Automatic annotation (TrEMBL):
<feature type="signal peptide">
    <location>
        <begin position="1"/>
        <end position="25"/>
    </location>
</feature>
<protein>
    <recommendedName>
        <fullName>DUF3530 domain-containing protein</fullName>
    </recommendedName>
</protein>
<dbReference type="Pfam" id="PF12048">
    <property type="entry name" value="DUF3530"/>
</dbReference>
<dbReference type="InterPro" id="IPR022529">
    <property type="entry name" value="DUF3530"/>
</dbReference>
<dbReference type="InterPro" id="IPR029058">
    <property type="entry name" value="AB_hydrolase_fold"/>
</dbReference>
<keyword id="KW-0732">Signal</keyword>
Length: 293
């Protein structure tokens, strides 16, 4: 059963907590004592803008944070579920920050989810099954939080190795969300077939594949592009990153603009045209008695 344990809403209280915790942390660091008194939530608050919201979700015995940035308009353009790379570790905040805050400024409700790293060898099938279930349950819980907002359009943005998990989750319900993969990697090391096979089922929505423009990555993008053609993914689009990519940074303006442009061109405008076409129906024929035509 999915429950929301509690929610930090950052306003005046959060600012007070921020400065108080920051002062405490700075004092302890100056004394060489570290910051052992801070909880995980307090440590996260030190890293967040004042208008961000930290929620702690709980699924069974798994307790984990999500970061929410409200849209800057009363009716959001849609919702973005950002999946951090499971291997990002504490850097998941840095990895998701730029897109999360930038897209909110352009009217999107955003939720960033930390995914756990694998703590075992893949040959341990029982542990791998538990790990896969943990990933799935976290994504499902995050989507439930988004569902509370009653937002119609949902886009999953998968970063790095989360792409494999995103495609695996969406293959069970391909009509739920569009997918953007940024520097996509398989969730099993070097097992591209798992990612491409799951991707091939996503025929209902757009799939946007943004990859680093590096020579060593070209074979990977060709594999995905060819699989998309074989699977008739009519809304699959691939494009190289338009900036110099050397890992995730706290601010990535060129990537923000590229993602926003891809969403507008390949998702929202296309969805609008599809809905318009559906609304144009053949005029109803006059109902006449039998024999009168």
């Amino acid at each position: 059963m999915i429950q929301t344990s509690f929610s930090f809403r950052l306003g005046i209280c959060a600012l007070f907590m921020f400065f108080s915790a920051a002062s405490l942390a700075q004092g302890l660091l100056e004394q060489g004592l570290g910051v052992p008194s801070l909880t995980v939530e307090e440590r996260l608050l030190l890293e967040l803008p004042a208008d961000s919201e930290l929620r702690i979700l709980e699924v069974s015995e798994d307790r984990f944070p999500v970061l929410i940035q409200q849209a800057n308009q009363s009716t959001p353009e849609g919702a973005l579920l950002l999946l951090a790379d499971p291997e990002a570790g504490p850097s998941w905040l840095e990895q998701t920050h730029s897109l999360r805050t930038y897209m909110a400024e352009f009217g999107w409700f955003t939720l960033a989810l930390d995914l756990p790293a694998r703590q075992h060898l893949i040959v341990d099938t029982d542990a791998e099954s538990r790990y896969a279930n943990q990933i799935t349950e976290r994504i499902r819980a995050a989507k439930t939080e988004i569902d509370r907002e009653s937002i119609e359009t949902l886009i999953v943005i998968a970063l790095g190795r989360s792409a494999g998990w995103a495609t695996e989750y969406l293959r069970q319900q391909p009509e739920v969300a569009h997918l953007i993969m940024i520097d996509p990697q398989p969730h099993h090391p070097n097992q591209w077939s798992a990612l491409t096979e799951a991707m091939s089922t996503l025929t209902e929505k757009a799939v946007i594949d943004i990859y680093p423009a590096r020579v060593q990555r070209l074979p990977d993008i060709r594999i995905r592009a060819n699989q998309a053609k074989r699977s008739d993914l009519l809304r699959y689009h691939s494009q190289p990153m338009k900036g110099e990519y050397a890992g995730w940074k706290i601010e990535m303006p060129w990537l923000n603009r590229q993602v926003r442009g891809a969403i507008k061109t390949f998702i929202t405008q296309v969805d609008t045209r599809i809905e318009a076409a559906r609304s144009v129906q053949e005029p109803p024929r006059e109902q006449l008695p039998p024999g009168r035509r």
